[in-house]
């Protein structure tokens, strides 16, 4: 039975719903947690397939294979990956920007946007994701997931919320991919049939969820009510799942390459982030090493 990761944020609620609806979830050993924990578990061999932050996949692409199934992104605003600031972004030069420890991709994207689009050089500090505490000692903060979704619906006085998916789209014309599903390379080599079955189950889960938006939003609203931040209205979740893009097509792959290129081009690549290696899909034989014929994409 494949051990499958699941991001414990509402962004994966439609997949949870779809896997329950089809019954495929019962055939899988599903483990939920925040994205950084999932990536650690996957690399430690305690998960076989999991959604991971895009930046994390790019940094570990020797050990991981990209699953050509779903991804988590948006073609414009994403509603839950934000740069929250007390003032205009142009005023962040030399000021402290707190980066959520929960995020890798949005944290990196925010740095790209601030430095290469806005043209400021802030000072960055990683911090636990708690907006109040982050903004107690910083001028701006990167926040993701359910906390970020809530911030958009109830923005505290004096704060401006900048949607990083929207900024990336207007900067590059491309959708943004925040997370991808990755498979441990050794698992993909040993169990290609199981990997294909999981890919098909996830793809089917997205299709089912897309066909039943009201039921998915109602289920996610109940899920949100159990969380520490309290219930989110169904209409907010309907809009969120409409905006979230779970596809990994040509434009999303082009965006991943562009993100890797811009990250590298800054000359200040954070540890672990390297250009996108050849994308090894599970329908073609998976090799033990990432240097497959065909070369770098
Ligand atoms: C859309 C989101 O996608 C995510 C963003 C991530 C990141 O910034 O590193 C990681 C995983 C996903 O949960 C979100 O969390 O709101």
TrEMBL record:
User: Which EC number(s) are documented for this chain?
Assistant: 4.2.1.151
* Organism of this sequence: Kitasatospora herbaricolor
A Pfam family that the UniProt record links to this protein: VitK2_biosynth
The record's catalysed reaction(s) read: chorismate = 3-[(1-carboxyvinyl)-oxy]benzoate + H2O
Instruction: Please tell me which top-level EC class this enzyme sits in.
Output: lyase
Q: Which domain of life is it from?
A: Bacteria
Role, per record: Catalyzes the dehydration of chorismate into 3-[(1-carboxyvinyl)oxy]benzoate, a step in the biosynthesis of menaquinone (MK, vitamin K2).
Family of this protein: Belongs to the MqnA/MqnD family. MqnA subfamily.
Q: Which InterPro entries match?
A: Menaquinone_biosynth, MqnA
Keywords of the record, alphabetical order, are: Lyase, Menaquinone biosynthesis
Q: What is this protein called?
A: Chorismate dehydratase
Q: In which pathway does it act?
A: Quinol/quinone metabolism; menaquinone biosynthesis
Segments carrying the region annotation (Disordered) are 267-297
């Amino acid at each position: 039975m494949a051990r499958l990761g699941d991001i414990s944020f509402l962004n994966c609620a439609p997949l949870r719903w779809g896997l329950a609806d089809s019954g495929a979830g019962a055939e899988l050993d599903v483990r939920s947690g925040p994205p950084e924990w999932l990536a650690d578990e996957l690399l430690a061999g305690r998960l076989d397939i999991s959604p991971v932050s895009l930046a994390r996949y790019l940094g570990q692409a020797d050990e991981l294979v990209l699953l050509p199934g779903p991804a988590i992104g948006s073609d414009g605003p994403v509603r839950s990956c934000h740069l929250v600031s007390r003032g205009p972004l142009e005023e962040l030069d030399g000021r402290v920007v707190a980066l959520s420890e929960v995020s890798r991709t949005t944290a990196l994207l925010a740095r790209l946007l601030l430095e290469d689009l806005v043209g400021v050089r802030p000072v960055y500090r990683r911090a636990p994701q708690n907006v109040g505490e982050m903004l107690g000692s910083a001028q701006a903060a990167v926040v993701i997931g359910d906390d970020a979704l809530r911030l958009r619906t109830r923005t505290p006085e004096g704060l401006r919320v900048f949607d990083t998916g929207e900024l990336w789209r207007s900067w590059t014309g491309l959708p943004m991919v925040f997370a991808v599903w990755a498979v441990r390379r050794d698992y993909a080599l040993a169990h290609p049939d199981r990997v294909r079955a999981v890919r098909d189950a996830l793809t089917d889960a997205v299709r089912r969820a897309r066909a039943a938006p009201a039921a998915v939003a109602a289920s996610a609203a109940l899920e949100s009510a159990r969380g520490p931040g309290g219930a989110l209205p169904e209409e907010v979740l309907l809009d969120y799942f409409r905006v979230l893009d779970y596809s990994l097509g040509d434009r999303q792959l082009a965006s991943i390459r562009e993100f890797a290129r811009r990250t590298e081009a800054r000359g200040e690549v954070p540890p672990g982030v390297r250009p996108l290696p050849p994308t090894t899909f599970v329908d073609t034989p998976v090799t033990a090493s990432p240097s497959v014929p065909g070369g770098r994409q």
